[in-house]
Design a protein that fits this description.
The complex is a heterodimer of chains A (about 210) and B (about 200). By secondary structure, chain A is mainly α. Chain A is built from seven helices and no strands. In chain A, helix 4 runs parallel beside helix 6. Classes of the chains: A mainly alpha (about 210), B alpha/beta (about 200).
Chain lengths: ~210, ~200
């Protein structure tokens, strides 16, 4: 008998898997999956992230920022989620002021931070060390974006704003018409940096004190 | 184009449901989302609707799990069927790996089906793709309406109009009742993954 080829194996395994997933004999699920209830808080945010990814409209950005505000209330006891929401909020503010001039990496980072938020909130049992790695990766990516934006600004590709030093502004592109002033932005950045730093320190402390690690 | 990461053994597949407006594309995804929610552990996202019409797109991602050592992720999209949203349709087709063409079986929609298929070919051409090489299947939808006395096209007519040149798999279906929705989905996933295997593995 001929030995099954790589193609045969993949095809037959795939078909078996599809039959398992999509067999019609089970009861009709009128309600969403058990996880749906837990994920629901993020469903609206996901829509707005996809909307922004598709087209940056004032409505999409405002809706995104409104969702961030709501979620910060919902997840105030989840420190890791709060850090990611802070980053998303900062990215949202940056997109609101910069619109299509926002650095192209902003949107991939937006998607990436959202994906990590979804991962963390839908896996409540995730080990702290894993959470910390996820957070660190996102914060590094955020820092890299800040640097790229600063470099672009320094290179004079985009009109600089007010007197905000480029090096200290994480996402500093500010159209002239914006109502967000440079000092306001600097203050927000400083608060965000302090918040992230304290959260990381806190997580590190928790890791040291956790006997299961 | 599919996202294939050989190092991590990950394959991500993009499948687009295409067809005339009000043909049942969104209903297909809604049925999949509702019927198999407990197994696919996902949620459908509809980006921008106006009333019951899709303006941007519907999006339903889910994981198939490990198949022959590969983690396979599927992303289902619909496009807005209305003629004026051609730019949106073209954008959703970017990077498409497989297509389900959802035709409306009602007699009065005959021209809409033909026009939509022609539009699909034009939009694929802008990405240097075509229906001769791309994996795709047809679904002849709304077959349940025949019982209500609504004039429906015979399958032979639909085949002649849309599939004579291509001879692709086709499924008479009722997305509303779920008839052949899963069969259509399984077929397009199989064809698309097989096509990706030939190209990348």
């Amino acid at each position: 008998m001929a030995k099954p080829t790589k193609s045969d194996t993949l095809t037959s395994e795939l078909e078996n898997r599809l039959d398992e997933l999509f067999q019609e004999d089970g009861p009709l699920a009128e309600t969403a999956s058990p996880r749906a209830g837990q994920q629901k808080p993020l469903a609206e945010l996901k829509k707005t992230v996809l909307s922004i990814d598709w087209e940056i409209t004032p409505e999409a950005v405002e809706s995104f920022l409104a969702q961030i505000r709501l979620l910060k209330e919902a997840y105030q006891s989840d420190k890791a989620a709060m850090v990611l929401l802070q980053i998303l909020g900062s990215l949202g503010q940056y997109i609101r002021t910069s619109r299509s001039k926002a650095h192209s990496s902003t949107f991939s980072l937006l998607n990436s931070v959202f994906a990590r938020l979804e991962e963390i909130t839908t896996h409540p049992g995730m080990p702290e060390v894993t959470k910390r790695k996820l957070l660190q990766a996102q914060m590094n990516a955020y820092q890299q974006l800040r640097e790229k934006v600063s470099q672009r600004r320094a290179a004079g590709q985009v009109r600089p704003s007010a007197a905000q030093p480029a090096a200290s502004a994480p996402l500093p592109l500010q159209p002239a018409a914006t109502v967000v002033t440079a000092p306001m932005l600097a203050k927000a950045i400083a608060e965000l940096k302090e918040f992230i730093r304290s959260e990381i320190e806190n997580l590190q402390r928790q890791m040291k004190n956790d006997p299961s690690q | 184009m599919a996202f294939v990461n050989l190092k991590n053994k990950l394959i991500q597949v993009k499948i687009v449901y295409y067809g005339p407006g009000r043909g049942g594309k969104t209903t297909n995804l809604e049925y999949i989302n509702r019927r198999f929610a407990q197994r696919i552990q996902s949620e459908m996202v509809t980006v921008k609707t106006h009333g019951d019409r899709t303006l941007f797109f519907d999006f339903l991602p889910f994981d198939i799990g490990l198949v022959n050592g590969f983690q396979i992720k599927i992303q289902l999209y619909t496009v807005p069927g209305q003629v004026k949203y051609d730019a949106t349709r073209r954008l959703v087709l970017r990077g498409v790996d497989g297509i389900v063409f959802v035709a409306d079986g009602m007699t009065l929609r005959r021209e809409n089906n033909i026009e939509s298929l022609r539009n699909l070919q034009e939009n694929l051409a802008s990405y240097k793709k075509n229906l001769r090489t791309l994996p795709w299947v047809l679904q002849y939808n709304k077959m349940d309406l025949k019982q209500q006395g609504i004039a429906m096209m015979p399958i032979e007519t639909l085949e002649q109009d849309l599939n004579q040149e291509f001879r692709r798999p086709y499924y008479p279906a009722s997305a509303l009742e779920g008839t052949n929705v899963a069969a259509t989905l399984k077929k397009i996933i199989s064809l698309t993954v097989e096509s990706i295997r030939k190209e990348f593995l």
